[in-house]
Amino acid sequence: MDWQGQKLSEQLMQIMLVAFSVIAFATGYFIGSFRMMLLIYAGGVVLTTLITVPNWPFFNRHPLKWLDPIEADRHPKPQPAVSKKKPSKSSHQKMQMVLSWCLDTFLIVDDFLPVLFIFEVENL
């Protein structure tokens, strides 16, 4: 199944499921049968599955053209360059500042927690 076939299959699936759900609800409502509604919807799901899941020929109208293995070996895929830069001191210093701020904030909050707890207990 090609890319356009996958798109067509998904669109068919969505349209068919919505159509069968509307038909099933309307039929179940007018007949007054929940069982009939579920049977119609289940039949719609099965029919939708049989139409959209198999690789039917109309889903493969635009096949992809693959390279021959010999041709692929002649033109290897370029490899990305590996950079071995060390982090600059400024980013290292920024990280230290952020960690220091977080630690200071935690210690300040940690110092106030017992005070807040005692205040809550005394006000009960």
UniProtKB/TrEMBL annotation:
Location relative to the cell = Endoplasmic reticulum membrane
Q: Looking at the keywords, is Endoplasmic reticulum present?
A: yes
- In residue numbers, the region (Disordered) covers 70-92
- Transmembrane parts of this sequence: 12-32, 38-59, 98-119
Domain of life of the organism in this record? Answer: Eukaryota
The annotated regions of Basic residues compositional bias extend over 83-92
Q: What is this entry's stated membrane topology?
A: Multi-pass membrane protein
Please tell me where this protein is predominantly located.
endoplasmic reticulum
What is one process in the GO biological process aspect for this record?
protein targeting to ER
Please tell me whether the keyword Transmembrane helix is annotated for this protein: yes
Q: Which InterPro entries match?
A: Spc1/SPCS1
Provide GO CC annotations from the record: signal peptidase complex
Task: State the family named in the UniProt similarity comment for this chain.
Answer: Belongs to the SPCS1 family.
Function recorded in the entry = Component of the signal peptidase complex (SPC) which catalyzes the cleavage of N-terminal signal sequences from nascent proteins as they are translocated into the lumen of the endoplasmic reticulum. Dispensable for SPC enzymatic activity.
Q: What is this protein called?
A: Signal peptidase complex subunit 1
What is the source species? Macleaya cordata
